């Protein structure tokens, strides 16, 4: 199969890791960044020390600060901008994209204010039918992908042709396996909400609680993801897969997770401002907690973990009191709050 020209926007840790996968697969990759020093470092030293300090990047991977150059002649465009910047980046990219460019994104979050998923934003700004947009998600820490640890992800699109085209770009036989899924709502929703539960898992660890507490948090968190996702039109099967329970486990149990680290710092008594400064990168779970709280109200869905984390993050509630509130909720039947996973 002939190599493709893929533009990757932007050069954070996940964008750089995915750009490296593509370059290792023989694709011709242009990685766009606004930071001239970062672009020079990638091209000269094959390093991105700010985000992946220990990693060597493929020599064929090229970076540029010129968005038009990055997108010129591109067969595919991979958007990995933070959720807060996705619309701005899409608007800037739109004039430079050919109509037949494959559009993929790998960002886990909702747009603050509109509460829209990233595929909806791309569809609006790039004037593409929603079924042409692909999302890449699943349990995949950049720090492990960049050193070629075995990783399995999912690409979702309403049109299988676009999902399979993305699958062909990313999949290899050595360390990066890719499944397809038609449920883009479920994949995006699971990827976004799991960051909230990751914050909660870190907070539990920061408070010094053990595995019992975290196992319960993950399990009940999956129920929250399933309830909201199903209300939004997703398939319950998705939450039992890579984008659901797979990504949830990875985020809640790994020190690579920014959301886990942020939650752990909060549990240790640091303020939100101090926490974000210490993490030093975007913590999507913080913004997502705001969005999910609003979505829960809009869809009439009970999300107690999300509600308590919102109180910790934005209302000054002490983390220990949030845990007490969750433990003291009115007794109920487990299956009354769960989403049943149908048989295939």
TrEMBL record:
Q: Which InterPro entries match?
A: 6-PGluconate_DH-like_C_sf, 6PGD_dom2, G3P_DH_NAD-dep, G3P_DH_NAD-dep_C, G3P_DH_NAD-dep_N, NAD(P)-bd_dom_sf
Query: Which residues take part in binding sn-glycerol 3-phosphate?
Result: 108, 138, 140, 194, 247, 257-259
Task: Please give the Gene Ontology molecular function terms for this protein.
Answer: glycerol-3-phosphate dehydrogenase [NAD(P)+] activity; NAD binding
| EC nos | 1.1.1.94
Give a GO cellular-component term: cytosol
Q: From which residue to which does the signal peptide run?
A: 1-19
Which BP terms in the Gene Ontology apply to this protein? Answer: carbohydrate metabolic process; glycerol-3-phosphate biosynthetic process; glycerol-3-phosphate catabolic process; glycerophospholipid metabolic process; phospholipid biosynthetic process
Name the reaction it catalyses. sn-glycerol 3-phosphate + NADP(+) = dihydroxyacetone phosphate + NADPH + H(+); sn-glycerol 3-phosphate + NAD(+) = dihydroxyacetone phosphate + NADH + H(+)
All copies of the Glycerol-3-phosphate dehydrogenase NAD-dependent N-terminal domain together span 6-161
Question: Which annotated residues bind NADPH?
Answer: 13-14, 34, 51, 108, 142, 258, 282, 284
Q: What class of enzyme is it?
A: oxidoreductase
Q: Please state the pathway this protein functions in, per its UniProt record.
A: Membrane lipid metabolism; glycerophospholipid metabolism
PANTHER family from the UniProt entry: GLYCEROL-3-PHOSPHATE DEHYDROGENASE, GLYCEROL-3-PHOSPHATE DEHYDROGENASE [NAD(+)] 2, CHLOROPLASTIC
Q: Which family does it belong to?
A: Belongs to the NAD-dependent glycerol-3-phosphate dehydrogenase family.
| Role played | Catalyzes the reduction of the glycolytic intermediate dihydroxyacetone phosphate (DHAP) to sn-glycerol 3-phosphate (G3P), the key precursor for phospholipid synthesis.
| The protein's name in its UniProt record | Glycerol-3-phosphate dehydrogenase [NAD(P)+]
């Amino acid at each position: 199969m002939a190599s493709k020209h893929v533009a990757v926007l932007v050069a954070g840790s996940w964008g750089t890791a995915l750009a490296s996968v593509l370059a290792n697969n023989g694709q011709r990759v242009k990685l766009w960044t606004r930071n001239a020093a970062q672009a020079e470092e990638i091209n000269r030293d094959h390093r991105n020390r700010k985000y992946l300090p220990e990693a060597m990047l493929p020599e064929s991977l090229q970076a540029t600060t010129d968005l038009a150059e990055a997108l010129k002649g591109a067969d595919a465009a991979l958007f990995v901008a933070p959720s807060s910047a996705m619309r701005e980046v899409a608007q800037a990219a739109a004039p430079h994209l050919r109509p037949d460019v494959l559009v993929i994104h790998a960002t886990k979050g909702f747009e603050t204010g509109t509460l829209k998923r990233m595929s909806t934003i791309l569809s609006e700004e790039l004037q593409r039918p929603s079924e042409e947009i692909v999302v890449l998600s699943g349990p995949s820490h950049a720090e492990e992908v960049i050193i070629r640890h075995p990783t399995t992800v999912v690409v979702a699109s309403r049109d299988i042709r676009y999902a399979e085209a993305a699958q062909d770009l990313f999949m290899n036989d050595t360390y990066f396996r890719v499944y397809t899924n038609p449920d883009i709502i479920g994949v995006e929703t699971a990827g976004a909400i799991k960051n909230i539960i990751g914050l909660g898992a870190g907070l539990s660890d920061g408070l010094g609680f053990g595995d019992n507490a975290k196992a319960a948090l993950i399990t009940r968190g999956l129920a929250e993801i399933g309830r909201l996702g199903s209300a939004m039109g997703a398939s319950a099967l998705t939450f039992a897969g890579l984008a659901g329970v797979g990504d949830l486990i990875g985020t809640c149990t790994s020190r690579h997770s920014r959301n886990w680290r942020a939650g752990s710092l909060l549990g240790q008594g640091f303020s939100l401002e101090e926490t974000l400064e210490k993490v030093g990168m975007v913590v999507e779970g913080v913004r997502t907690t705001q969005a999910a709280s609003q979505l829960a109200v809009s869809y009439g869905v009970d999300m107690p973990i999300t509600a308590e984390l919102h109180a910790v993050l934005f209302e000054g509630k002490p983390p220990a009191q949030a845990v007490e509130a969750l433990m003291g909720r009115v007794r109920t039947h487990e299956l009354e709050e769960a989403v049943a996973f149908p048989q295939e």
